[in-house]
Amino acid sequence: MAEDTQAPQLRVFASPGRYVQGRGALARLGELLAPLGSRPLLLADDTVRGLTEGVLAPAFSRAELPLTFERFGGLPTRSEIGRVARVLADGGHDVVVGVGGGTAIDTAKAAGDDAGIPWVSAATVASTDAPTSALSVVYTEDGGFESYRFYDRNPALVVVDTGFVAAAPARFLSAGIGDALATWIEARAVERAHSTTMVDGLPTRAGTALARLSWDILWESAPAALEAVEHGLVTPDVEAVVEANTLLSGLGFESGGLAAAHAVHDGLTAVEHTHHLAHGEKVNIGSLTQLVLEGAPAAEVDRFAEFTARLGLPTTLTEAGLGDVGDEVLDEVVAAATAPGETIHNLAFSPTAREVRDALRAVEGVGRRARRRAGLEEPRTPGGH
Protein backbone atom coordinates (compact mmCIF):
# COMPACT_ATOMS: atom_id res chain seq x y z
CA MET A 1 0.00 0.00 0.00
CA ALA A 2 1.40 3.42 -0.95
CA GLU A 3 2.21 5.66 1.98
CA ASP A 4 -0.09 8.67 2.42
CA THR A 5 2.27 11.64 2.46
CA GLN A 6 -0.42 14.29 2.72
CA ALA A 7 -0.31 16.18 6.02
CA PRO A 8 -3.37 15.44 8.17
CA GLN A 9 -5.88 18.21 8.80
CA LEU A 10 -5.87 18.96 12.51
CA ARG A 11 -8.52 20.58 14.66
CA VAL A 12 -7.20 23.67 16.44
CA PHE A 13 -8.62 25.77 19.27
CA ALA A 14 -6.97 29.04 20.33
CA SER A 15 -7.64 31.37 23.24
CA PRO A 16 -6.08 34.19 25.26
CA GLY A 17 -4.14 33.41 28.43
CA ARG A 18 -6.74 35.02 30.73
CA TYR A 19 -10.03 36.88 30.30
CA VAL A 20 -11.30 39.34 32.93
CA GLN A 21 -14.62 41.17 32.57
CA GLY A 22 -16.75 43.39 34.79
CA ARG A 23 -17.42 46.86 36.10
CA GLY A 24 -14.18 48.24 37.53
CA ALA A 25 -11.96 45.72 35.73
CA LEU A 26 -9.57 48.46 34.53
CA ALA A 27 -8.90 49.38 38.16
CA ARG A 28 -7.22 45.96 38.44
CA LEU A 29 -5.14 46.26 35.28
CA GLY A 30 -1.93 47.05 37.18
CA GLU A 31 -1.99 43.91 39.32
CA LEU A 32 -3.03 41.79 36.32
CA LEU A 33 -0.14 43.18 34.24
CA ALA A 34 2.54 42.82 36.90
CA PRO A 35 3.29 39.14 36.18
CA LEU A 36 3.76 39.94 32.48
CA GLY A 37 6.31 42.75 32.62
CA SER A 38 7.75 45.67 34.53
CA ARG A 39 7.80 48.33 31.77
CA PRO A 40 4.39 48.34 30.07
CA LEU A 41 3.41 50.72 27.29
CA LEU A 42 -0.25 51.65 26.89
CA LEU A 43 -1.42 52.49 23.36
CA ALA A 44 -4.51 54.73 23.35
CA ASP A 45 -5.92 57.71 21.51
CA ASP A 46 -6.39 61.02 23.32
CA THR A 47 -10.07 60.40 24.07
CA VAL A 48 -9.49 56.97 25.61
CA ARG A 49 -6.50 58.22 27.59
CA GLY A 50 -8.58 61.05 28.99
CA LEU A 51 -11.29 58.62 30.06
CA THR A 52 -9.02 55.98 31.61
CA GLU A 53 -5.94 57.68 33.04
CA GLY A 54 -7.65 58.63 36.30
CA VAL A 55 -8.53 54.99 36.93
CA LEU A 56 -5.24 53.54 35.70
CA ALA A 57 -2.86 55.85 37.57
CA PRO A 58 -3.70 54.57 41.08
CA ALA A 59 -3.95 51.00 39.77
CA PHE A 60 -0.44 51.15 38.34
CA SER A 61 0.87 52.91 41.43
CA ARG A 62 -0.42 50.12 43.67
CA ALA A 63 1.26 47.56 41.39
CA GLU A 64 4.48 49.62 41.37
CA LEU A 65 4.39 49.89 37.59
CA PRO A 66 5.17 53.01 35.55
CA LEU A 67 2.16 54.38 33.64
CA THR A 68 3.41 55.24 30.15
CA PHE A 69 1.04 56.12 27.32
CA GLU A 70 1.75 56.29 23.60
CA ARG A 71 -0.67 58.17 21.36
CA PHE A 72 -2.46 55.91 18.90
CA GLY A 73 -2.68 57.22 15.34
CA GLY A 74 -6.16 55.86 14.61
CA LEU A 75 -5.72 52.87 12.24
CA PRO A 76 -3.64 49.66 12.29
CA THR A 77 -1.68 50.49 9.15
CA ARG A 78 1.77 49.16 8.34
CA SER A 79 3.34 52.53 9.10
CA GLU A 80 1.54 52.93 12.45
CA ILE A 81 2.44 49.39 13.49
CA GLY A 82 6.09 50.01 12.61
CA ARG A 83 6.13 53.32 14.48
CA VAL A 84 4.73 51.79 17.67
CA ALA A 85 7.15 48.84 17.44
CA ARG A 86 10.04 51.32 17.34
CA VAL A 87 8.67 53.13 20.39
CA LEU A 88 8.52 49.80 22.22
CA ALA A 89 12.11 48.92 21.33
CA ASP A 90 13.51 52.39 22.04
CA GLY A 91 11.79 52.53 25.43
CA GLY A 92 12.78 49.06 26.54
CA HIS A 93 9.15 48.09 27.09
CA ASP A 94 8.42 44.46 27.89
CA VAL A 95 4.63 44.37 27.42
CA VAL A 96 2.24 46.44 25.29
CA VAL A 97 -1.40 47.15 26.09
CA GLY A 98 -3.97 48.22 23.51
CA VAL A 99 -6.52 50.36 25.35
CA GLY A 100 -9.88 51.25 23.79
CA GLY A 101 -11.43 49.57 20.75
CA GLY A 102 -10.40 47.06 18.13
CA THR A 103 -8.09 49.26 16.07
CA ALA A 104 -5.85 50.20 19.00
CA ILE A 105 -5.87 46.60 20.19
CA ASP A 106 -4.99 45.21 16.74
CA THR A 107 -2.13 47.72 16.45
CA ALA A 108 -0.78 46.74 19.87
CA LYS A 109 -0.82 43.06 18.86
CA ALA A 110 1.13 43.71 15.67
CA ALA A 111 3.65 46.04 17.29
CA GLY A 112 4.11 43.63 20.18
CA ASP A 113 4.76 40.81 17.75
CA ASP A 114 7.34 42.92 15.91
CA ALA A 115 9.02 43.79 19.21
CA GLY A 116 8.92 40.22 20.50
CA ILE A 117 6.98 41.03 23.68
CA PRO A 118 3.59 39.98 25.11
CA TRP A 119 0.50 41.98 24.21
CA VAL A 120 -2.60 42.72 26.25
CA SER A 121 -6.11 43.85 25.25
CA ALA A 122 -7.83 46.37 27.55
CA ALA A 123 -11.22 47.06 25.98
CA THR A 124 -13.36 50.05 26.93
CA VAL A 125 -16.02 49.20 24.33
CA ALA A 126 -17.53 45.92 23.10
CA SER A 127 -17.67 46.96 19.46
CA THR A 128 -15.70 44.05 17.92
CA ASP A 129 -14.43 40.59 18.82
CA ALA A 130 -10.80 41.63 18.19
CA PRO A 131 -9.56 41.60 21.82
CA THR A 132 -9.18 37.83 22.22
CA SER A 133 -7.78 36.80 18.85
CA ALA A 134 -4.33 35.99 17.48
CA LEU A 135 -4.75 38.18 14.43
CA SER A 136 -4.96 41.81 13.40
CA VAL A 137 -6.82 43.44 10.56
CA VAL A 138 -4.33 45.67 8.74
CA TYR A 139 -5.71 48.65 6.81
CA THR A 140 -4.39 50.86 4.04
CA GLU A 141 -3.70 54.51 4.79
CA ASP A 142 -7.07 55.51 3.34
CA GLY A 143 -9.04 53.04 5.48
CA GLY A 144 -9.42 50.08 3.12
CA PHE A 145 -8.86 46.47 4.16
CA GLU A 146 -5.33 45.35 3.30
CA SER A 147 -4.78 41.96 4.95
CA TYR A 148 -5.12 39.77 7.99
CA ARG A 149 -1.95 39.38 10.03
CA PHE A 150 -1.69 36.18 12.06
CA TYR A 151 0.33 35.42 15.19
CA ASP A 152 1.45 32.21 16.87
CA ARG A 153 -0.12 33.27 20.18
CA ASN A 154 -3.15 35.11 21.48
CA PRO A 155 -3.14 38.06 23.87
CA ALA A 156 -1.64 37.13 27.22
CA LEU A 157 -4.50 38.94 28.95
CA VAL A 158 -7.86 40.43 27.97
CA VAL A 159 -9.58 42.93 30.29
CA VAL A 160 -13.03 44.36 29.51
CA ASP A 161 -14.48 47.02 31.82
CA THR A 162 -18.26 46.93 31.47
CA GLY A 163 -18.57 50.25 33.32
CA PHE A 164 -16.77 51.91 30.43
CA VAL A 165 -18.79 49.90 27.90
CA ALA A 166 -22.03 51.16 29.45
CA ALA A 167 -20.78 54.75 29.46
CA ALA A 168 -19.87 54.67 25.76
CA PRO A 169 -22.39 55.49 23.00
CA ALA A 170 -24.78 52.59 22.45
CA ARG A 171 -23.77 52.48 18.78
CA PHE A 172 -20.49 50.83 19.82
CA LEU A 173 -22.31 47.97 21.52
CA SER A 174 -24.73 47.66 18.59
CA ALA A 175 -21.81 47.38 16.16
CA GLY A 176 -20.28 44.67 18.34
CA ILE A 177 -23.55 42.77 18.20
CA GLY A 178 -23.46 42.97 14.39
CA ASP A 179 -19.94 41.57 14.39
CA ALA A 180 -20.86 38.80 16.84
CA LEU A 181 -24.09 37.70 15.15
CA ALA A 182 -22.04 36.90 12.04
CA THR A 183 -19.96 34.44 14.05
CA TRP A 184 -22.57 31.67 14.04
CA ILE A 185 -23.70 32.39 10.47
CA GLU A 186 -20.12 31.92 9.32
CA ALA A 187 -19.09 29.11 11.69
CA ARG A 188 -21.96 26.88 10.62
CA ALA A 189 -21.02 27.47 6.97
CA VAL A 190 -17.40 26.53 7.68
CA GLU A 191 -18.52 23.42 9.56
CA ARG A 192 -20.75 22.32 6.66
CA ALA A 193 -17.95 22.84 4.15
CA HIS A 194 -15.21 21.26 6.30
CA SER A 195 -13.16 24.39 5.62
CA THR A 196 -10.28 25.64 7.75
CA THR A 197 -10.51 28.31 10.40
CA MET A 198 -8.49 31.42 11.22
CA VAL A 199 -6.03 29.28 13.22
CA ASP A 200 -5.31 27.06 10.21
CA GLY A 201 -7.17 23.99 11.33
CA LEU A 202 -10.52 22.33 11.02
CA PRO A 203 -13.13 23.81 13.35
CA THR A 204 -13.38 22.30 16.80
CA ARG A 205 -16.74 21.46 18.29
CA ALA A 206 -15.88 23.88 21.08
CA GLY A 207 -15.30 26.76 18.67
CA THR A 208 -18.52 26.06 16.78
CA ALA A 209 -20.51 25.65 20.00
CA LEU A 210 -19.23 28.95 21.38
CA ALA A 211 -20.23 30.67 18.14
CA ARG A 212 -23.76 29.30 18.60
CA LEU A 213 -23.80 30.30 22.29
CA SER A 214 -22.89 33.86 21.35
CA TRP A 215 -25.80 33.89 18.86
CA ASP A 216 -28.27 32.55 21.43
CA ILE A 217 -27.27 35.08 24.09
CA LEU A 218 -27.60 37.98 21.66
CA TRP A 219 -31.09 37.00 20.53
CA GLU A 220 -32.09 36.79 24.19
CA SER A 221 -30.32 39.80 25.70
CA ALA A 222 -29.31 42.31 23.01
CA PRO A 223 -32.45 44.52 23.04
CA ALA A 224 -32.45 44.88 26.83
CA ALA A 225 -28.68 45.45 26.92
CA LEU A 226 -28.87 48.27 24.39
CA GLU A 227 -31.70 49.87 26.33
CA ALA A 228 -29.62 49.70 29.52
CA VAL A 229 -26.54 51.18 27.86
CA GLU A 230 -28.64 54.05 26.52
CA HIS A 231 -29.00 55.00 30.20
CA GLY A 232 -25.41 54.15 31.21
CA LEU A 233 -26.45 51.09 33.19
CA VAL A 234 -24.58 47.82 33.76
CA THR A 235 -27.14 45.02 34.02
CA PRO A 236 -26.91 41.22 33.71
CA ASP A 237 -28.03 41.61 30.09
CA VAL A 238 -25.17 44.05 29.45
CA GLU A 239 -22.67 41.66 31.02
CA ALA A 240 -24.05 38.80 28.92
CA VAL A 241 -23.89 40.75 25.66
CA VAL A 242 -20.37 42.04 26.36
CA GLU A 243 -19.24 38.44 26.93
CA ALA A 244 -21.02 37.32 23.75
CA ASN A 245 -19.53 40.16 21.70
CA THR A 246 -16.01 39.82 23.02
CA LEU A 247 -15.14 36.41 24.44
CA LEU A 248 -17.61 34.02 22.82
CA SER A 249 -17.58 35.66 19.40
CA GLY A 250 -13.79 36.02 19.57
CA LEU A 251 -13.25 32.35 20.32
CA GLY A 252 -16.03 31.36 17.94
CA PHE A 253 -14.80 33.22 14.88
CA GLU A 254 -11.18 32.23 15.40
CA SER A 255 -11.71 28.53 16.09
CA GLY A 256 -15.03 28.21 14.23
CA GLY A 257 -14.07 30.08 11.07
CA LEU A 258 -15.10 33.01 8.87
CA ALA A 259 -16.95 32.89 5.57
CA ALA A 260 -18.77 35.39 3.33
CA ALA A 261 -19.98 37.92 5.91
CA HIS A 262 -16.50 39.15 6.78
CA ALA A 263 -15.33 38.89 3.18
CA VAL A 264 -18.14 41.25 2.17
CA HIS A 265 -17.10 43.54 5.03
CA ASP A 266 -13.60 43.59 3.57
CA GLY A 267 -15.05 44.35 0.16
CA LEU A 268 -17.12 47.23 1.54
CA THR A 269 -13.98 48.88 2.93
CA ALA A 270 -12.62 49.09 -0.63
CA VAL A 271 -14.98 51.97 -1.52
CA GLU A 272 -15.10 55.28 0.32
CA HIS A 273 -18.91 55.31 0.36
CA THR A 274 -18.95 52.97 3.38
CA HIS A 275 -16.29 54.56 5.56
CA HIS A 276 -18.91 56.11 7.86
CA LEU A 277 -19.90 52.63 9.04
CA ALA A 278 -18.26 50.83 11.95
CA HIS A 279 -16.73 47.38 11.45
CA GLY A 280 -19.72 45.49 12.85
CA GLU A 281 -22.16 47.60 10.85
CA LYS A 282 -20.46 46.59 7.61
CA VAL A 283 -20.36 42.99 8.83
CA ASN A 284 -24.14 43.06 9.25
CA ILE A 285 -24.53 43.91 5.56
CA GLY A 286 -22.17 40.99 4.96
CA SER A 287 -24.27 38.63 7.09
CA LEU A 288 -27.40 39.46 5.10
CA THR A 289 -25.47 39.02 1.86
CA GLN A 290 -24.24 35.60 2.95
CA LEU A 291 -27.73 34.46 3.95
CA VAL A 292 -29.09 35.53 0.55
CA LEU A 293 -26.13 33.95 -1.26
CA GLU A 294 -26.62 30.64 0.57
CA GLY A 295 -30.30 30.57 -0.31
CA ALA A 296 -31.34 30.57 3.35
CA PRO A 297 -35.12 30.31 3.90
CA ALA A 298 -36.84 33.66 3.36
CA ALA A 299 -38.35 33.55 6.83
CA GLU A 300 -34.87 33.19 8.36
CA VAL A 301 -33.44 36.05 6.31
CA ASP A 302 -36.40 38.32 7.10
CA ARG A 303 -36.28 37.52 10.81
CA PHE A 304 -32.57 38.31 10.97
CA ALA A 305 -32.99 41.55 9.01
CA GLU A 306 -35.83 42.75 11.23
CA PHE A 307 -33.99 41.83 14.45
CA THR A 308 -30.82 43.66 13.47
CA ALA A 309 -32.74 46.68 12.14
CA ARG A 310 -34.40 46.99 15.55
CA LEU A 311 -30.93 46.99 17.10
CA GLY A 312 -29.94 50.00 15.00
CA LEU A 313 -27.78 48.08 12.55
CA PRO A 314 -27.81 48.88 8.82
CA THR A 315 -29.76 46.39 6.73
CA THR A 316 -29.78 48.17 3.35
CA LEU A 317 -27.23 49.33 0.82
CA THR A 318 -28.78 52.79 1.13
CA GLU A 319 -27.59 53.06 4.75
CA ALA A 320 -24.15 51.94 3.61
CA GLY A 321 -24.02 54.75 1.04
CA LEU A 322 -24.42 52.34 -1.87
CA GLY A 323 -28.13 52.52 -2.58
CA ASP A 324 -27.87 54.42 -5.84
CA VAL A 325 -24.41 53.43 -7.08
CA GLY A 326 -23.78 51.76 -10.41
CA ASP A 327 -22.56 48.23 -10.96
CA GLU A 328 -18.99 49.47 -11.36
CA VAL A 329 -18.87 50.48 -7.66
CA LEU A 330 -20.37 47.22 -6.46
CA ASP A 331 -17.96 45.38 -8.73
CA GLU A 332 -15.12 46.97 -6.73
CA VAL A 333 -16.70 45.64 -3.55
CA VAL A 334 -17.18 42.20 -5.06
CA ALA A 335 -13.65 42.04 -6.45
CA ALA A 336 -12.20 42.71 -3.00
CA ALA A 337 -14.63 40.32 -1.30
CA THR A 338 -13.78 37.46 -3.67
CA ALA A 339 -10.02 38.04 -3.89
CA PRO A 340 -7.79 34.96 -3.53
CA GLY A 341 -7.38 34.08 0.13
CA GLU A 342 -10.60 35.80 1.17
CA THR A 343 -12.83 33.94 3.61
CA ILE A 344 -15.76 33.76 1.17
CA HIS A 345 -13.93 30.76 -0.30
CA ASN A 346 -14.70 28.85 2.93
CA LEU A 347 -18.27 28.37 1.71
CA ALA A 348 -19.27 24.92 0.49
CA PHE A 349 -19.72 26.34 -3.02
CA SER A 350 -17.85 28.86 -5.16
CA PRO A 351 -20.09 31.84 -5.91
CA THR A 352 -19.39 33.83 -9.06
CA ALA A 353 -18.78 37.56 -8.92
CA ARG A 354 -22.19 38.12 -10.52
CA GLU A 355 -23.88 35.99 -7.85
CA VAL A 356 -22.23 37.97 -5.08
CA ARG A 357 -23.21 41.28 -6.68
CA ASP A 358 -26.80 40.11 -7.10
CA ALA A 359 -26.92 39.03 -3.45
CA LEU A 360 -25.66 42.46 -2.40
CA ARG A 361 -28.33 44.12 -4.53
CA ALA A 362 -30.99 41.88 -3.01
CA VAL A 363 -30.10 43.06 0.50
CA GLU A 364 -31.72 46.41 -0.26
CA GLY A 365 -35.19 44.93 -0.66
CA VAL A 366 -34.76 42.56 2.29
CA GLY A 367 -33.70 45.41 4.53
CA ARG A 368 -36.45 47.78 3.43
CA ARG A 369 -39.13 45.16 4.11
CA ALA A 370 -37.62 44.48 7.51
CA ARG A 371 -37.65 48.16 8.44
CA ARG A 372 -41.30 48.46 7.43
CA ARG A 373 -42.25 45.44 9.54
CA ALA A 374 -40.36 46.91 12.48
CA GLY A 375 -42.14 50.25 12.09
CA LEU A 376 -38.87 52.06 11.34
CA GLU A 377 -38.48 54.98 8.95
CA GLU A 378 -37.27 54.43 5.42
CA PRO A 379 -33.47 54.13 5.15
CA ARG A 380 -31.58 57.31 4.37
CA THR A 381 -28.49 57.85 2.28
CA PRO A 382 -25.63 59.25 4.40
CA GLY A 383 -24.56 62.79 3.60
CA GLY A 384 -22.01 63.21 0.86
CA HIS A 385 -22.99 60.23 -1.34
TrEMBL record:
Q: What metabolic or biological pathway is this protein involved in?
A: Polyol metabolism; glycerol fermentation; glycerone phosphate from glycerol (oxidative route): step 1/2
Q: What class of enzyme is it?
A: oxidoreductase
Catalytic reaction annotation: glycerol + NAD(+) = dihydroxyacetone + NADH + H(+)
The UniProt note on the cofactor reads as follows:
Binds 1 zinc ion per subunit.
**EC number(s) given by UniProt:** 1.1.1.6
Matching SUPFAM superfamilies = Dehydroquinate synthase-like
User: Keywords in UniProt for this one?
Assistant: Metal-binding, NAD, Oxidoreductase, Zinc
Residues annotated for NAD(+) binding in this entry: 45, 102-106, 124-127, 133, 135, 139
Q: Which residues form the Alcohol dehydrogenase iron-type/glycerol dehydrogenase GldA domain?
A: 16-162
| The name this protein goes by in its record | Glycerol dehydrogenase
Q: Which organism is it from?
A: Nocardiopsis flavescens
Classification of source organism = Bacteria, Bacillati, Actinomycetota, Actinomycetes, Streptosporangiales
